[in-house]
Write a structure and sequence with these properties.
The complex is a heterodimer. By secondary structure, chain A is α/β, with parallel strands linked by helices. In chain A, 40% of the residues lie in helices and 17% in strands. In chain A, helix 2 runs parallel beside helix 11. By secondary structure, chain B is α/β, with parallel strands linked by helices. Chain B contains 11 helices and 13 strands. In chain B, strands 1-2-3-4-5-6-7-13 form an 8-stranded parallel β-barrel, surrounded by 5 helices. In chain B, strands 8-11-10-9 form a 4-stranded antiparallel sheet, with no helix packed on it. Chain B starts with 5 loop residues before the first strand and ends with a helix. The chains are: A alpha/beta, B alpha/beta.
Amino acid sequence: MGDKINNYDLRLKDMEILSPAGSLEHVEAAIEAGADAFYVGLKGFSSRPDPWSLDLREICVAANIAHEAGRRIYVAINAEFYSRQRNELKHAIQIMAENSIDALIVGDLGLLHFLKEIENSLPIHASTLLGIYNAEGIRFLQKAFGVTRIIVNTNLLVDEIAELHFLSPSTELELISYGGVCFNDNRRCRLPHYQDNEEFCVGCKQLYNIYKVEQTSTLPHNTQAILQTKHQNITLSEDRIIWLPEVDLSDILGLFIKSGVTSFKIEGRTRSTEYISKSTKRMKQALNKTLCDERFWDRNRNQYFYINHFSKIKG
Amino acid sequence: MSSIPLFVTIKKWTDPLLKEIHPYADGIVIGDLFCQKRMFENEWFDVIELATHAKELNLRVTFQTPVYNTSKTFDTMLCLLRKLYKKKIVDAIFVHDIGVLQALKELQGIELWWDNFAFNRDFVPNKDLIEFLKLQGISNIEVKTSSHIKEVSEQDCGIILFGYGPNITSFSRICYTEYFLDEPCERKLLCRNEHPFIVSVDKNPLQYIADGYTLIDRNTPIHFLPEIEPKLMRKVDAIRIYIENINDIQSVSAFIKTFDKQ
């Protein structure tokens, strides 16, 4: 397989399984399970709750563990960024640079602007929160801020991902491929906040019940006001859309590799150590299996993956 | 007409509606956030005609770029905007993403407005973000609250206030109207909103109304204007409202006039 890797124009040597880590215990588990890289949140700047983020000291320890094992560590700075946090963040960036953090995951245009101003030297990965949907956006982030990787928005379709790669081949693409993904736009969903009046910090795992409205009399009292402007009878037919709280692309990694994705991310910094271990092993095995598949290496059979996988998706 | 310019967005644009709106509005916003089928009879093909008629009525025209500009729509949208620009029938453009913003720099002289849907979750108008957007040519930022008016104005950036309309709680790129009904997308479903969907979320049943793309917290639009401190209204450069019908604009327009008197 080695020769084929050398000859293949995809950057297979950089192919990675990227695991979540909400604690140092998670870091150990991810490495043990074969993660090529893992990501953590910087406490106070992460979109996950503080108990599932690492402080600077812990990040330095995690970096040391990662590098000794020959793995990479990325640090997410993806919570809302306030101007008052500038000095604190500047200090944190300095420390992380000294500890050779492999990349920062950034979710705010203002923050990118700030990083440029303080002459940050660390590589930058653009979070899904930046809402990059087109090659123009990628080129700009590359040119203006030196962004090296785009974490692909979960709302993009496979052909759109492939087009991004085709138009910006030098940018790495990362895809959330295991864990919680919602059909709502993860960049702008205000549901957790709206419902619970809490910080945006916990992965939303809502179940949505969607009702077609035909007859008012069957609805609970409090919905009358909502519906009074609708001039029709209402029936509550209990159809339900449940978006699986877990996505698992392990069977179709080949499709995305051929579309230009090089990093397969597992969601779940707030999950158990067992989950991290299990999901990492599953994804690592799937990646190895894909790369060992003779059909994957056959340049004349690119279609195979599309046909095979699309038929799988359709079930 | 009030001293604060009023821009109107409506779910579905028609020529007669344009004439009805004319006495109350200073400008219109055309282009749907998600599906052009529901805003125009013939998708974007109607935009040039509509913008031309708006200009004849002396209305300012703002184009709303869709939320998702992928390779599927990007070039078409850009061509349309070039055409509007060349014909001088567009004054400003609402932008959502940095890629579109870069592409639109070629249309010199057009005002670029940063849409309230362009922000991550809850908008934090940090100094760096506003400074960056201004450097990229954004002249106005759309906000919804008094605190945001204050913060944006302190950084010397123009302000568009989203004054009236549905409070969108979340949205999706997937139009699940079709999926849910298990029948082809009928324009009437989206455009006329004949079949609302009630969505429950976990243990809070029937809390939201869904229109295929957006989850909003109630069916009646929210009037954001009464929540704004009167002294901050002076810092607002324009108000954008999203109306269902002509009655909405009459009530909003009357409300704005009370600010003028103050």
